Amino acid sequence: MNTRKLLYNLIITGLLMALVTVATMLIKVPIPVTNGYIHVGDSMIFLAAIMFGKRKGALAGGIGSAFADLLWGYPQWILPTLVVKGLMGYLVGAIADQDNDNVINLRNILALVIGAITMATGYLFVGAIMTGSFVAVLVEGFPADLVQGFGGAALFIPIGIALKKTDYFKGSILNKSL
């Protein structure tokens, strides 16, 4: 990979991580049983993964979300978030169809569903370990995580549709500049 392309990828990945961090910190709704919170940052993880692929999705999801936990003062969630959100971004990017001009297609919808369920399930098990109560997390935390995940998917769709229409994602800017 040439230096220019490497630098470009580094910059895009860093911007995506920052975007996830900021979106995660915009709205915070606490979940008392898990000492966690729900947010809209998942929409930006979906954006990173579907629009830029599994590597950028994993890095933006894992590192961007973990950094938000650090900044919000949830240090106990940093490592689990790095793993759960990183896996979520990776799976969504691996399943999604980045080459399709239409954001709403079967593979992308499947990727969003799998991503939301992966995140909620990951936090279910981590929350159960951290709180010592699988049932409490299943009753209170898991539904909140599903709302967050599917809400993030719903928020991503209009953003993704709008971005796919830009010259950047049509390839003209990428092909001319790199």
UniProtKB/TrEMBL annotation:
Keyword Ion transport: no
Taxonomy, superkingdom: Bacteria
Gene3D superfamilies in alphabetical order: 1.10.1760.20
GO cellular component terms, semicolon-separated: membrane
Keyword Transmembrane annotated: yes
Transmembrane feature ranges: 7-27, 77-96, 108-134, 146-163
InterPro entries the record matches: ECF_substrate-spec-like
UniProtKB keywords: Membrane, Transmembrane, Transmembrane helix
Pfam families registered for this protein in UniProt: ECF-ribofla_trS
Protein name: Putative membrane protein
